């Protein structure tokens, strides 16, 4: 397509646009964009996207290179190096709307890109359908690109979910650790448990003893972890120059959740200790 003397054919997308599209897209060009003059007269000119120019072997617009699109020679007046929006144009051939209407029988635009002031995008999108198609606004679909606030909120939500998942895994690991420690304590103190049972200790006394031990371990671990997390948050905020923010419910929920985890983790070891018979414990110790 680039050089008529070379037998080369590439399939590229052709986009018809008004001259203001380059400013709207925040495009940076090598060469120049087509103008209202080109559009009004239906001039056979084109602006190539960076990827399209690379595929066609065009590196600059000096000498006015020509590409053949559907049998029509188009003079390349500019190359889009980058865009702030709609990066899809980097792989396309952009021609004036006036040329597309006369040569390619374009009836009307299929997509309108509007550049708005900060904060006005939602209001413009709500009114665009009626402004473009007063008689049938329902056929126009509008979309608003995510703002910096929306993106930040989405990232914060994902980060919060990841941290909650890590916290959940940490709680499970902590619970398993407390259960293992309590179970080892039961096995090591089997003789002691048998003696206590032999001198009158009831099953619920043994159960309560080990259950209280695991609960205290969970509560102390959660309390220390909450304090450490609070201090780290304050220290990082001080280093970064941010105002430290701590939710009270988090500071209160940490020890409570740790206590519950310790209680649940100690259920099986405590039940096992309570079911030890005195005679079996003394035989095992002998």
UniProtKB/TrEMBL annotation:
Compartment annotation: Cell membrane
Residue ranges of every copy of the ABC3 transporter permease C-terminal domain listed in the record: 166-278
TM region positions: 162-187, 207-237, 249-268
Entry keywords, A to Z: Cell membrane, Membrane, Transmembrane, Transmembrane helix
Molecular function (Gene Ontology), one example: transmembrane transporter activity
Gene Ontology cellular component annotations, sorted alphabetically: plasma membrane
Membrane disposition: Multi-pass membrane protein
Top-level taxon in the UniProt lineage: Bacteria
Main subcellular location: membrane
Span of domain MacB-like periplasmic core: 10-127
InterPro entries named among the record's database cross-references: ABC3_permease_C (IPR003838), MacB_PCD (IPR025857), Macrolide_Exporter_MacB (IPR050250)
Family under the similarity heading: Belongs to the ABC-4 integral membrane protein family.
Name of the protein this chain belongs to: ABC transporter permease protein
UniProt organism field: Mobilicoccus pelagius NBRC 104925
């Amino acid at each position: 397509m680039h050089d008529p003397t070379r037998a080369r054919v590439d399939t590229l997308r052709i986009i018809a646009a008004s001259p203001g599209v380059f400013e709207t897209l925040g495009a940076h060009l090598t060469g120049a964009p087509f103008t209202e003059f080109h559009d009004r007269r239906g001039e056979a000119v084109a602006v190539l996207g960076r990827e399209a120019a690379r595929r066609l072997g065009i590196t600059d617009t000096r000498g006015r290179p020509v590409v053949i699109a559907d049998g029509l020679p188009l003079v390349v007046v500019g190359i889009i190096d980058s865009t702030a929006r709609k990066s899809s144009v980097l792989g396309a051939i952009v021609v004036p709307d006036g040329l597309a209407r006369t040569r390619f029988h374009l009836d009307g635009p299929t997509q309108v890109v509007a550049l708005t002031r900060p904060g006005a995008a939602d209001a413009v999108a709500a009114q665009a359908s009626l402004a473009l198609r007063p008689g049938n606004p329902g056929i126009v679909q509008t979309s608003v690109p995510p703002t910096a606030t929306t993106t930040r909120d989405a990232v914060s939500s994902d980060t919060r979910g990841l941290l909650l998942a890590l916290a959940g895994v940490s709680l499970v690991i902590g619970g398993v650790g407390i259960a293992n420690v309590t179970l080892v304590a039961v096995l090591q103190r089997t003789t002691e448990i048998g003696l206590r049972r032999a001198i009158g200790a009831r099953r619920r006394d043994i159960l309560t003893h080990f259950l209280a031990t695991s609960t205290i371990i969970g509560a102390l671990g959660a309390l220390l972890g909450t304090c450490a997390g609070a201090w780290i948050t304050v220290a990082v905020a001080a280093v970064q120059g941010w105002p430290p923010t701590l939710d009270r419910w988090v500071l209160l929920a940490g020890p409570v959740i740790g206590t519950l985890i310790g209680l649940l983790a100690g259920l099986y070891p405590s039940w096992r200790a309570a079911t030890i018979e005195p005679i079996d414990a003394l035989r095992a110790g002998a």
